[in-house]
Write a structure and sequence with these properties.
Elements: E1 2-3, E2 6-7, E3 21-25, H1 32-40, H2 62-65, E4 68-71, H3 83-91, H4 100-106, H5 122-134, E5 140-144, H6 152-167, E6 172-176, H7 180-186, E7 189-194, E8 197-202, H8 204-211, E9 215-221, E10 224-230, H9 233-244, E11 248-254, H10 258-269
Parallel strand pairs: 3-6, 3-7, 4-5, 5-6
Antiparallel strand pairs: 1-2, 7-8, 9-10, 9-11
The structure holds adenosine-5'-triphosphate.
Length: 273
Protein backbone atom coordinates (compact mmCIF):
# COMPACT_ATOMS: atom_id res chain seq x y z
CA UNK A 1 0.00 0.00 0.00
CA UNK A 2 1.42 3.34 -1.05
CA UNK A 3 0.19 6.87 -0.35
CA UNK A 4 1.90 9.23 -2.78
CA UNK A 5 5.48 8.10 -2.62
CA UNK A 6 5.19 6.69 0.89
CA UNK A 7 4.90 2.91 1.29
CA UNK A 8 2.83 2.17 4.37
CA UNK A 9 2.75 -1.62 3.79
CA UNK A 10 5.53 -3.63 2.22
CA UNK A 11 5.67 -7.38 1.64
CA UNK A 12 2.84 -8.05 4.08
CA UNK A 13 2.15 -11.73 3.43
CA UNK A 14 0.07 -13.86 5.73
CA UNK A 15 -2.78 -16.33 5.77
CA UNK A 16 -5.65 -16.78 8.20
CA UNK A 17 -7.01 -20.31 8.41
CA UNK A 18 -10.72 -21.05 8.70
CA UNK A 19 -11.97 -20.87 12.28
CA UNK A 20 -8.82 -19.36 13.69
CA UNK A 21 -8.48 -16.14 15.67
CA UNK A 22 -5.64 -14.12 14.21
CA UNK A 23 -4.43 -11.01 16.02
CA UNK A 24 -2.65 -8.19 14.24
CA UNK A 25 -0.41 -6.32 16.66
CA UNK A 26 1.87 -3.37 16.19
CA UNK A 27 2.65 0.16 17.37
CA UNK A 28 0.50 3.16 16.37
CA UNK A 29 0.87 3.75 12.64
CA UNK A 30 2.27 0.25 11.93
CA UNK A 31 -0.37 -0.42 9.28
CA UNK A 32 -2.93 -2.61 11.07
CA UNK A 33 -6.02 -0.63 10.13
CA UNK A 34 -4.77 -0.20 6.57
CA UNK A 35 -4.28 -3.98 6.27
CA UNK A 36 -7.67 -4.78 7.72
CA UNK A 37 -9.42 -2.18 5.54
CA UNK A 38 -7.83 -3.64 2.40
CA UNK A 39 -9.12 -7.08 3.40
CA UNK A 40 -12.59 -5.65 4.10
CA UNK A 41 -12.70 -4.01 0.67
CA UNK A 42 -12.74 -0.48 2.15
CA UNK A 43 -9.39 0.52 0.72
CA UNK A 44 -7.95 -0.33 -2.66
CA UNK A 45 -4.41 -1.63 -2.44
CA UNK A 46 -1.70 -0.19 -4.68
CA UNK A 47 -0.29 -3.61 -5.57
CA UNK A 48 -0.17 -7.23 -4.48
CA UNK A 49 -2.61 -10.10 -4.26
CA UNK A 50 -5.42 -10.50 -1.73
CA UNK A 51 -7.91 -13.33 -1.39
CA UNK A 52 -10.71 -13.19 1.18
CA UNK A 53 -13.19 -16.09 1.26
CA UNK A 54 -12.20 -16.91 -2.31
CA UNK A 55 -12.69 -13.41 -3.75
CA UNK A 56 -10.60 -10.32 -4.31
CA UNK A 57 -11.98 -7.71 -1.87
CA UNK A 58 -11.45 -4.98 -4.47
CA UNK A 59 -14.21 -6.66 -6.52
CA UNK A 60 -16.28 -8.33 -3.78
CA UNK A 61 -19.99 -8.16 -4.53
CA UNK A 62 -22.98 -8.05 -2.21
CA UNK A 63 -23.07 -11.82 -1.66
CA UNK A 64 -19.41 -11.76 -0.66
CA UNK A 65 -19.94 -8.81 1.70
CA UNK A 66 -22.82 -10.63 3.39
CA UNK A 67 -20.34 -13.29 4.55
CA UNK A 68 -18.26 -10.71 6.43
CA UNK A 69 -18.81 -9.00 9.75
CA UNK A 70 -17.05 -5.71 10.31
CA UNK A 71 -16.38 -3.70 13.45
CA UNK A 72 -14.58 -0.51 12.52
CA UNK A 73 -12.25 1.39 14.81
CA UNK A 74 -14.57 4.36 15.03
CA UNK A 75 -18.30 4.00 14.84
CA UNK A 76 -20.73 5.36 12.35
CA UNK A 77 -23.63 7.32 13.69
CA UNK A 78 -26.99 5.69 14.25
CA UNK A 79 -27.91 8.09 17.08
CA UNK A 80 -31.69 8.11 16.89
CA UNK A 81 -32.20 4.38 16.47
CA UNK A 82 -33.00 2.23 19.45
CA UNK A 83 -30.63 -0.70 20.07
CA UNK A 84 -33.13 -3.51 19.40
CA UNK A 85 -34.64 -1.72 16.39
CA UNK A 86 -31.27 -1.14 14.79
CA UNK A 87 -30.08 -4.73 15.21
CA UNK A 88 -33.38 -6.14 13.93
CA UNK A 89 -33.19 -3.81 10.93
CA UNK A 90 -29.58 -4.61 10.07
CA UNK A 91 -30.27 -8.32 10.59
CA UNK A 92 -33.01 -8.16 7.97
CA UNK A 93 -30.32 -7.73 5.30
CA UNK A 94 -28.95 -11.20 6.00
CA UNK A 95 -30.34 -14.67 5.21
CA UNK A 96 -29.80 -16.10 8.72
CA UNK A 97 -29.36 -13.28 11.23
CA UNK A 98 -29.09 -13.53 15.01
CA UNK A 99 -32.34 -12.93 16.82
CA UNK A 100 -32.02 -9.31 18.00
CA UNK A 101 -32.90 -10.01 21.66
CA UNK A 102 -30.58 -12.99 21.85
CA UNK A 103 -27.73 -10.98 20.36
CA UNK A 104 -28.42 -8.06 22.72
CA UNK A 105 -28.23 -10.46 25.67
CA UNK A 106 -24.99 -11.95 24.30
CA UNK A 107 -23.27 -8.57 24.26
CA UNK A 108 -24.78 -7.59 27.62
CA UNK A 109 -27.11 -4.81 26.48
CA UNK A 110 -30.48 -6.25 27.55
CA UNK A 111 -31.12 -3.41 30.00
CA UNK A 112 -30.49 -0.89 27.22
CA UNK A 113 -32.31 -2.63 24.37
CA UNK A 114 -34.89 0.14 24.06
CA UNK A 115 -32.48 3.03 24.48
CA UNK A 116 -31.50 5.36 21.72
CA UNK A 117 -27.98 4.70 20.52
CA UNK A 118 -26.84 8.26 21.29
CA UNK A 119 -27.74 7.75 24.97
CA UNK A 120 -25.37 4.78 25.40
CA UNK A 121 -22.04 5.15 27.20
CA UNK A 122 -18.82 4.70 25.20
CA UNK A 123 -18.40 1.09 26.32
CA UNK A 124 -22.06 0.26 25.69
CA UNK A 125 -21.76 1.80 22.26
CA UNK A 126 -18.74 -0.38 21.55
CA UNK A 127 -20.71 -3.48 22.58
CA UNK A 128 -23.36 -2.45 20.07
CA UNK A 129 -20.67 -2.10 17.40
CA UNK A 130 -19.61 -5.66 18.10
CA UNK A 131 -23.24 -6.82 17.90
CA UNK A 132 -23.59 -5.05 14.54
CA UNK A 133 -20.52 -6.93 13.30
CA UNK A 134 -22.00 -10.25 14.42
CA UNK A 135 -25.65 -9.80 13.41
CA UNK A 136 -25.38 -11.60 10.05
CA UNK A 137 -23.55 -14.62 11.54
CA UNK A 138 -20.48 -13.89 9.42
CA UNK A 139 -17.98 -16.53 8.35
CA UNK A 140 -15.24 -13.99 8.83
CA UNK A 141 -15.33 -11.27 11.46
CA UNK A 142 -13.02 -8.25 11.38
CA UNK A 143 -12.58 -6.49 14.72
CA UNK A 144 -10.50 -3.32 14.76
CA UNK A 145 -9.63 -2.60 18.41
CA UNK A 146 -12.98 -3.98 19.55
CA UNK A 147 -12.59 -3.68 23.33
CA UNK A 148 -11.40 -0.07 23.61
CA UNK A 149 -13.43 1.45 26.43
CA UNK A 150 -14.75 -1.85 27.79
CA UNK A 151 -14.81 -2.30 31.55
CA UNK A 152 -13.06 -5.47 32.81
CA UNK A 153 -16.28 -7.46 33.06
CA UNK A 154 -17.42 -6.48 29.56
CA UNK A 155 -13.96 -7.36 28.27
CA UNK A 156 -14.10 -10.82 29.86
CA UNK A 157 -17.60 -11.40 28.44
CA UNK A 158 -16.48 -10.23 25.03
CA UNK A 159 -13.54 -12.64 25.10
CA UNK A 160 -15.91 -15.50 25.83
CA UNK A 161 -18.07 -14.43 22.87
CA UNK A 162 -15.11 -14.36 20.47
CA UNK A 163 -13.81 -17.73 21.68
CA UNK A 164 -17.32 -19.19 21.33
CA UNK A 165 -17.72 -17.85 17.78
CA UNK A 166 -14.40 -19.30 16.78
CA UNK A 167 -14.35 -22.61 18.70
CA UNK A 168 -17.95 -23.68 18.30
CA UNK A 169 -19.23 -21.49 15.49
CA UNK A 170 -16.22 -21.97 13.20
CA UNK A 171 -16.04 -18.21 12.59
CA UNK A 172 -12.68 -16.88 11.45
CA UNK A 173 -11.73 -13.76 13.40
CA UNK A 174 -9.15 -11.17 12.47
CA UNK A 175 -8.61 -8.66 15.22
CA UNK A 176 -6.32 -5.76 15.99
CA UNK A 177 -5.63 -4.78 19.57
CA UNK A 178 -3.15 -2.95 21.76
CA UNK A 179 -4.11 -5.15 24.69
CA UNK A 180 -1.44 -7.85 24.75
CA UNK A 181 -3.22 -9.92 27.40
CA UNK A 182 -6.26 -9.93 25.12
CA UNK A 183 -4.18 -11.16 22.17
CA UNK A 184 -2.57 -13.82 24.34
CA UNK A 185 -5.95 -15.07 25.51
CA UNK A 186 -7.78 -15.02 22.18
CA UNK A 187 -5.33 -15.48 19.35
CA UNK A 188 -4.43 -18.81 17.81
CA UNK A 189 -1.85 -16.89 15.85
CA UNK A 190 -0.27 -13.46 16.07
CA UNK A 191 1.13 -11.30 13.30
CA UNK A 192 3.23 -8.33 14.45
CA UNK A 193 3.51 -5.38 12.08
CA UNK A 194 5.99 -2.58 12.50
CA UNK A 195 6.61 0.22 10.03
CA UNK A 196 4.47 -1.54 7.41
CA UNK A 197 6.37 -4.84 7.55
CA UNK A 198 5.70 -8.13 9.28
CA UNK A 199 8.27 -8.62 12.01
CA UNK A 200 6.81 -11.79 13.54
CA UNK A 201 4.16 -14.40 12.73
CA UNK A 202 3.35 -17.36 14.96
CA UNK A 203 1.62 -18.56 18.11
CA UNK A 204 2.30 -16.63 21.33
CA UNK A 205 4.56 -19.53 22.41
CA UNK A 206 6.49 -19.51 19.13
CA UNK A 207 7.05 -15.77 19.40
CA UNK A 208 8.23 -16.17 22.99
CA UNK A 209 10.67 -18.94 21.93
CA UNK A 210 12.22 -16.63 19.34
CA UNK A 211 12.83 -13.93 21.89
CA UNK A 212 13.87 -16.07 24.88
CA UNK A 213 12.26 -13.72 27.36
CA UNK A 214 13.09 -13.57 31.03
CA UNK A 215 10.87 -14.77 33.85
CA UNK A 216 10.48 -12.71 36.99
CA UNK A 217 11.05 -14.27 40.41
CA UNK A 218 9.99 -12.50 43.60
CA UNK A 219 10.55 -13.65 47.20
CA UNK A 220 10.83 -12.39 50.76
CA UNK A 221 13.92 -12.98 52.89
CA UNK A 222 14.36 -11.66 56.45
CA UNK A 223 11.37 -9.36 55.96
CA UNK A 224 12.70 -7.81 52.74
CA UNK A 225 11.10 -8.26 49.32
CA UNK A 226 13.40 -9.17 46.39
CA UNK A 227 12.74 -9.36 42.65
CA UNK A 228 15.04 -10.81 39.97
CA UNK A 229 14.81 -11.55 36.24
CA UNK A 230 16.13 -14.84 34.95
CA UNK A 231 16.21 -16.97 31.80
CA UNK A 232 15.81 -20.14 33.87
CA UNK A 233 13.41 -19.72 36.78
CA UNK A 234 13.66 -23.37 37.90
CA UNK A 235 17.44 -23.26 38.27
CA UNK A 236 17.23 -19.85 39.97
CA UNK A 237 14.68 -21.02 42.53
CA UNK A 238 16.63 -24.21 43.25
CA UNK A 239 19.75 -22.14 43.96
CA UNK A 240 17.74 -19.74 46.12
CA UNK A 241 16.46 -22.58 48.33
CA UNK A 242 19.88 -24.28 48.40
CA UNK A 243 21.32 -21.09 49.85
CA UNK A 244 18.54 -19.91 52.17
CA UNK A 245 16.29 -22.95 52.74
CA UNK A 246 13.15 -22.27 54.77
CA UNK A 247 14.03 -18.59 55.24
CA UNK A 248 12.62 -17.95 51.74
CA UNK A 249 8.95 -16.92 51.87
CA UNK A 250 6.27 -15.54 49.55
CA UNK A 251 7.81 -17.03 46.42
CA UNK A 252 6.17 -15.95 43.12
CA UNK A 253 7.30 -16.71 39.57
CA UNK A 254 5.86 -14.68 36.72
CA UNK A 255 6.65 -16.20 33.32
CA UNK A 256 7.56 -13.76 30.59
CA UNK A 257 4.32 -12.51 29.02
CA UNK A 258 3.34 -11.77 25.45
CA UNK A 259 3.80 -8.12 26.39
CA UNK A 260 7.49 -8.74 27.19
CA UNK A 261 7.91 -10.66 23.93
CA UNK A 262 6.09 -8.01 21.91
CA UNK A 263 8.14 -5.15 23.33
CA UNK A 264 11.38 -7.04 22.64
CA UNK A 265 10.27 -7.80 19.05
CA UNK A 266 9.38 -4.19 18.34
CA UNK A 267 12.62 -2.92 19.89
CA UNK A 268 14.55 -5.41 17.79
CA UNK A 269 12.68 -4.47 14.59
CA UNK A 270 13.31 -0.79 15.19
CA UNK A 271 17.01 -1.38 15.90
CA UNK A 272 16.61 -0.37 19.54
CA UNK A 273 17.47 -3.78 21.05
N1 LIG B 1 -5.31 8.17 3.76
C1 LIG B 1 -4.02 8.17 4.09
N2 LIG B 1 -3.12 8.93 3.45
C2 LIG B 1 -1.81 8.92 3.78
N3 LIG B 1 -1.30 8.17 4.77
C3 LIG B 1 -2.14 7.38 5.45
C4 LIG B 1 -3.54 7.33 5.17
N4 LIG B 1 -4.12 6.45 6.02
C5 LIG B 1 -3.12 5.97 6.80
N5 LIG B 1 -1.95 6.52 6.47
C6 LIG B 1 -0.63 6.22 7.08
O1 LIG B 1 -0.43 4.83 7.02
C7 LIG B 1 0.29 4.36 8.17
C8 LIG B 1 -0.45 3.19 8.78
O2 LIG B 1 -1.66 3.65 9.39
P1 LIG B 1 -2.70 2.67 10.08
O3 LIG B 1 -3.90 3.47 10.45
O4 LIG B 1 -2.91 1.48 9.22
O5 LIG B 1 -1.90 2.24 11.39
P2 LIG B 1 -2.39 1.35 12.62
O6 LIG B 1 -1.36 0.28 12.79
O7 LIG B 1 -3.79 0.91 12.46
O8 LIG B 1 -2.25 2.40 13.81
P3 LIG B 1 -3.11 2.62 15.20
O9 LIG B 1 -2.59 1.59 16.16
O10 LIG B 1 -2.68 3.98 15.59
O11 LIG B 1 -4.55 2.48 14.89
C9 LIG B 1 0.45 5.56 9.07
O12 LIG B 1 1.75 6.05 8.92
C10 LIG B 1 -0.59 6.57 8.57
O13 LIG B 1 -0.14 7.86 8.78
Amino acid sequence: MRYGTHDVLRGVTFQARRGEVLALLGPNGAGKTTTIEILEGFRTRSAGRVDVLGDDPAHGGEAWRARLGIVLQSWRDHGKWRVRELLAHLGSYYPDPWDASELIATVGLTEHADRQVRRLSGGQRRRLDVAIGMVGRPELLFLDEPTTGFDPEARREFHDIVLGLSRTGGTTVLLTTHDLAEAEKLADRIVVLDGGRIVADGTAAELADRIAGEDEVAWTLDGRRHVASTRDATRFVRALFAEHGDAVAGLAVRPSSLEDTYLALVRQAEGRA
